[in-house]
Amino acid sequence: MQVAIVLPVIALFLFGILEYSRYVMLLQIMTNAAREGCRYAVMHTDPVVIGSTTYGSATSNVNTIVSNMLGGQTLSSQTINVYASDPLGNNTGTWENASAGQWITVQITGNFTSILPRLLFMPSTIPITAEVVMRSEGN
């Protein structure tokens, strides 16, 4: 009788811990991926041409770095934005020709999808934004 009362409460508590842990893990992964993408962007504002191949200053290159750093984790409705900004992360234009000392921002936005939202009495999606602002090294 006592197990029938206590076991559902313990299970609910454990599932809540697991969901919150997944949320915090995904937030940390997104922040690290944005940081690595921003680091790449601030070092590659000017394209490098080797032979006939151009490397560097393309948003697709930053998106590739971010996607690789995500390790297969994604958010629903995920978007990756790269832009020149002020120190607060407000968009001021394109980042590709940023001069030395100008700010560049990488922002990842999307929705965290809960596995057990009804059981835990929580919303099925929670918005997440990871944003990193760094100064351009102006190659």
**Main sheet: strands, sense, barrel:** 4 strands, antiparallel
Structurally, the number of domains stands at 1
Helix content range of the residues, please?
25-40%
Shape: elongated
State the separation between the terminal residues, measured CA to CA: 71 Å
Count of individual helical segments: 2
Give the amount of beta strand, in percent.
Answer: 25-35%
How large is the radius of gyration?
Answer: 20 Å
* N to C succession of SSEs: HEEHEEEE
Describe the protein's architecture and organization.
The structure is a single chain. With 139 residues, the protein is an alpha+beta fold. The chain has one domain (2-135). Helix content is 38%, strand content 29%. It has helices at residues 2-43, 59-69; strands at residues 48-50, 53-55, 76-85, 91-93, 103-113, 125-135. The chain has a four-stranded antiparallel sheet. Helix 1 packs antiparallel against helix 2 (59-69). The longest helix has 42 residues, at 2-43.
Topology of this protein?
Elements (H helix, E strand, L loop, with lengths): L1 H42 L4 E3 L2 E3 L3 H11 L6 E10 L5 E3 L9 E11 L11 E11 L4
Antiparallel strand pairs: 1-2, 3-4, 3-5, 5-6
